[in-house]
Amino acid sequence: MAISIKTPEEIEKMRVAGRLAAEVLEMIEPHVKPGVSTGELDRICHDHITNQQKAVSASLGYHGFPKSVCISVNEVVCHGIPSDDRLLKDGDIINIDVTVIKDEYHGDTSKMFIVGKPTILGERLCRVTQESLYLSLRMIKPGVRLRALGREIQKYVEANDFSVVREYCGHGIGKGFHEEPQVLHYDADDGGVVLQAGMTFTVEPMVNAGDYRIRTMKDGWTVKTKDRSLSAQYEHTIVVTENGCEILTLRKDDTIPAVLVNEG
Length: 264
Known about the structure:
Blueprint: H1 8-28, H2 38-52, E1 56-57, E2 70-73, E3 76-78, E4 93-102, E5 105-114, H3 120-139, H4 146-159, E6 163-164, E7 170-172, E8 179-183, E9 200-203, E10 206-208, E11 214-216, E12 223-225, E13 231-233, E14 236-240, E15 244-247, E16 259-261
Antiparallel strand pairs: 1-4, 2-4, 3-12, 4-5, 6-10, 7-8, 9-14, 10-13, 11-12, 14-15, 15-16
């Protein structure tokens, strides 16, 4: 498995791309409200990426994907296609997934937004999903087995009576959108990968309120929970440092420090 170790120069370019991706999620927040269409949110994101940031959306045209960001509402697990027909309503939970390319390097991140007044289940699902991501990020440092991240995510999620999607995973990232290694969010064989300083990858657990099984719609992109239960996801791009990790896609609303240092 060829996992690239990024140079300081490459990491600096990824910091720039990661910051831009995070900025899109910060920018779109006030627009996420009842009555807006997911198509309109996509247009606002596209305009910001192309005209304000002078960057490129990695999603637009990727294997034929028709929009600039993925917007997944309620039971949609991932790869939701924004549409003018999909109007948000009170209590919806939505994931907006942004990947920006700047100077050839990728920054990939997503977060959940709760539309209007939250439901108890929707709010709890989003919170547990975000906490599972933070839990895994705090574990990252050189010498740790990659498999340990997925094991702890699964353990935490299932302790809260939710389930982890198996079919999708985090991934290495850099000049390539999807590089090695695959970052599984449940306990499974990782090919023996041990974390090293300079590795860059995403961690992006997808958590369902019901069963972990999923189904893909006829459009070939939209993935939904098989039992129509709610689904949530949070994602960050990170670089492994000498004593922990740095979150390259950190947002102002993140409740963890910019640099996670693991002691011991």
